Each structure stands twice: as C-alpha cells, then as structure tokens.
C-alpha cells in the first residue's frame, strides 16, 4: 500500500488549491524544489501522474483530482482525531464543522438547525459554503474533502454518490408563482434559473401545455422570485425557495400530481461517525416538517 505522510498530503492539497508549485511552496513555507520533490514522490508511490505541468501552473489530472480529494479527507480526519479524542471522556463536542448547502437550504433549512446545534454544543464552529446544485453540486464538496456534510437534492436522477452515505430530510413540492395582481398571469414569460433545470420537474414540465419555454433566465432562485414579485414573469419553484415570499406574489398549488424533490444530507462513511456531524444530522431531522412561508 502507498505510504503517504501527512506532509505529502498537505503538499498535494496546496498545489491543487494554489494552482501551481511556486504558489504552493509560498503558502506552505517551502522551497519550490521541495514541493516538486514531494509531488514526484507521491506520484511514484501512487503509480499515477497527479498534475499536468504547464506555463500556466499545475492542473490536477483525473487521478490527481481523486488523490487530492482523498488527501483533504484524510487530513480532515487527522484534525478530528486531535479534537475529538481528548474530549471523548467528557462528551464535549468542539471545533469547526464544515457544511455545504445550496442557496435556499442555507437560507431556510440550515439556520434553525445550526441555532439548536450551537445552543447544545457552543464550542462547535459551523462553517457554511453556499454551492450551486449543478454538476457535482454540494455532494461534490464532500467528495473533494471541502465539506464534512452537505445539504443536497436526492432522487433517481441525483442519487447519493456511491462513496457517500446520506438520508432524506424533507420532500418539497413545487408551486406555480405569479404576480398577485396580474389579470392574465399565464400570458407572462416563464422565468427560470440554471439549478432548477436539473430538478425533477423536467418530465412534468414536458406534459404541461400551458407552460412556455423559459424566456428569462437568472442566476438563482432569489432573482427569479424578485422578477415575479415585480410583475415581470411567472415561475415554477420549490417550497424552500418560496419561504418568506412577498405579498405581491401569489403561490398556487399545482395539485396532487405536482412535481417534488427530496432534500437530504450526505457525508462520508468515516465522517458519519463524527460526534459533530451526528449532532447536526439530529438537529436537521428534528427540524424537518411542513414548510411554511
């Protein structure tokens, strides 16, 4: 088995994060030759080229991306060992807890759970990253070792990655949203955003003759809601995105056949045993239930 030392793992992470050997050396307080030597040693041990070297810096190869992800996760476990082992007898939970979440979850699902978590364990330090739920999305942050737990959309088209474990927290439905005082809201253009295109509404949308193709696209669901509130269009949006919607917006139920999506959590099998991660999962489960605006 390859025997990489923690300092070699830190070098791999630094080269990937800094996009080059020179910048990584500066960040680590090492010489560039020492960084290059460390990377070459890691490549020999793993039997793979980890970085493409070029004039613009260093870019991880597919093998390098996998190695860097594992390196971040191993280094994180070493941090947790140092924080959790001394506190094992007292049961105290302390230290940083890194969470990735998509925008609406970070606004409406996480805050009450984190508030309860901090009340029960005041020495936990939550660190939240807002990540667009596209491509590898929030789950990718966990796979890459940047987050301990992620709030993610889970379903047949976005299953829990094989390397992770997780569970469903809530099932949110979609609703038709339009300006409250518009005389003919179905005549308005459809407003959408990129993340919504990857949701489980796609097949449902295809069957809706009254829904036009999106003619206005924005960066996030907050901008969609603002445009609808301003009378510039209509939209089909999930419940989390509609929490706190203004009075100028009317939310219309789409009936029993409305599209839904599952929102859940994902983490790594090894981090699932961390007291801090387990505590946050308990609070997320305790706070799930019907969403209200």
Give the helices and strands as they follow along the chain. HHHEEHEHHEHEEEHHEHEEEH
CATH architectural type of the largest domain: 3-Layer(aba) Sandwich
Low-confidence stretches: none
CATH topology of the largest domain: D-Maltodextrin-Binding Protein, domain 2
Taken as a percent bin, the fraction of beta residues is 15-25%
Q: Tally the helices: what do you get?
A: 11
Mean pLDDT: 89
Explain this structure:
This protein has 11 helices and 11 strands. Strands 3, 4, 5, 6, 9, 10 and 11 form a 7-stranded mixed sheet that branches. The radius of gyration is 23 Å and the shape is globular.
List the helices and strands and how they pair.
Layout: H1 6-18, H2 21-28, H3 32-46, E1 51-54, E2 57-60, H4 62-84, E3 95-101, H5 103-108, H6 110-120, E4 124-130, H7 137-143, E5 149-154, E6 165-179, E7 190-193, H8 194-197, H9 202-206, E8 214-218, H10 221-229, E9 235-238, E10 249-253, E11 260-267, H11 275-287
Parallel strand pairs: 3-4, 3-5, 7-8
Antiparallel strand pairs: 1-2, 5-11, 6-9, 6-10, 6-11
Helix pairs in contact: 1-2, 1-3, 1-4, 2-3, 6-11
């Amino acid at each position: 088995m390859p025997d990489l030392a923690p300092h070699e793992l830190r070098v791999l992470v630094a080269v990937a994060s800094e996009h080059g050997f020179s910048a990584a050396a500066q960040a680590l307080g090492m010489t560039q030759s020492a960084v290059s030597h460390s990377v070459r040693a890691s490549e020999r041990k793993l039997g793979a080229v980890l970085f493409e070297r070029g004039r613009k810096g260093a870019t991880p190869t597919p093998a390098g991306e996998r190695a860097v992800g594992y390196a971040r996760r191993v280094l994180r476990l070493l941090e947790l060992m140092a924080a959790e082992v001394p506190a094992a007898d007292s049961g105290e939970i302390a230290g940083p807890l890194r969470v990735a979440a998509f925008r609406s979850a970070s606004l409406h699902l996480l805050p009450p759970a984190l508030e309860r978590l901090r009340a029960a364990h005041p020495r936990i330090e939550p660190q939240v990253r807002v990540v667009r739920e596209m491509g590898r999305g929030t789950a990718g942050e966990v796979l890459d070792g940047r987050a301990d737990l992620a709030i993610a959309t889970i379903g047949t088209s976005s299953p829990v990655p094989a390397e992770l474990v997780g569970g469903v927290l809530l099932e949110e439905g979609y609703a038709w949203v339009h300006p409250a005082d518009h005389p003919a809201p179905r005549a308005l253009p459809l407003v959408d955003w990129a993340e919504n295109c990857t949701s489980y509404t796609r097949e449902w949308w295809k069957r809706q003759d009254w829904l036009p193709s999106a003619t206005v696209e924005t960066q996030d669901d907050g901008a969609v809601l603002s445009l609808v509130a301003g009378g510039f269009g209509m939209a089909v949006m999930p419940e989390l995105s509609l929490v706190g919607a203004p009075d100028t917006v009317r939310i219309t139920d789409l009936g029993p056949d409305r599209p839904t999506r599952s929102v859940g959590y994902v983490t790594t099998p090894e981090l699932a045993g961390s007291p801090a991660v387990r505590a946050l999962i308990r609070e997320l489960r305790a706070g799930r239930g019907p969403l209200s605006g």
